[in-house]
Amino acid sequence: MPYAIRIHETGGPEKLVWDEISVGDPGPGQVRLRQTAVGVNFIDIYYRTGLYDLPPPFIPGREAVGIVEAVGPDVTSLKLGDRVVYSGVQGAYAEVRLVPAERLVRLPEGVSDDLGAAMMQKGMTAQFLCRQTYRIEKGDTVVVHAAAGGVGLVLCQWARYLGATVIGTVSTEEKAQIAKVHGCDYPLIHGKDDVVKVVKEVTGGMGVPVVYDSIGKDTFMNSLDCLRPRGLMVLYGQSSGAVPPFDISLLDKKGSLFLTRPSQNAYLPNRAALEAGARDVFEVVLSGAVKVHISHRFPLKDAAESHRALESRKTTGSLVLQP
């Protein structure tokens, strides 16, 4: 019988339990995957702690690579032995699972299983952030918080590839060096560097057209101060906690600013959007424009250790679980 990590009640990393599971035959529109690599993302922690509501028991995780070992009766797009990847499908922390065929894309040659699991959720997030939420153009200057994190490293490189100047924030000198190697022109350290001052200096006092913020409570107000008039605040995570309620007239006072909270569900609503986003991600990775940094690998049964490492905010890049 296969095993999976299950959460029977929300809470700390100790709530990630190694359970034996039963996986049946795929039904209409489904395939059964024997998974080979599973990605770890901060959103998994949001679900584990109960910040994002998902009634237990459930299997966490939203991205993985696997081999198709059975297909449903009406599935014609995939066959046995296909190597595929997915993101945004809850239940990834498992050795074997059922997945809707329409959510799977074939993994190109030249992309390893670990790399596929490390890049898909983060790459698809970076794609809609820099190509759809705000379409970065050559000559832009942008701010990326958590620039040495999984999405941050991809986003910095992609923005640089598109011709932008990147101002990033990190928590340590070590992370600043990693961010710099991965496309961040101005890596700044929280609590040490004056981010708003540097932004004004680099932009000649104007501010930036967009800030990408996955930290939330600790950075939100300073992020608004980095924006030029009618700039866009993109809040796509909250690793430091939720942003407290505030008077929205503040957006007017700071220059008629825009605020958005994007998600994959909204930006990847159908198969066509999934395929287009995946093509973009595969293209920039295979071209070498974006290099995905895997900092830690853990056995799947030790998923709790991966969450402890990620929550410590001492990790960089991507974390991968190996079934």
From TrEMBL:
It holds the Pfam family ADH_zinc_N. It comes from the Bacteria. This is Quinone oxidoreductase. InterPro entries: ADH-like_C, ADH-like_N, ER, GroES-like_sf, NAD(P)-bd_dom_sf, QOR-like. Keywords: NADP, Oxidoreductase. Residues 11-321 form the Enoyl reductase (ER) domain. The lineage of its organism: Bacteria, Pseudomonadati, Pseudomonadota, Betaproteobacteria, Burkholderiales. Gene3D superfamilies: Medium-chain alcohol dehydrogenases, catalytic domain (3.90.180.10), NAD(P)-binding Rossmann-like Domain (3.40.50.720). It comes from Paraburkholderia terrae.
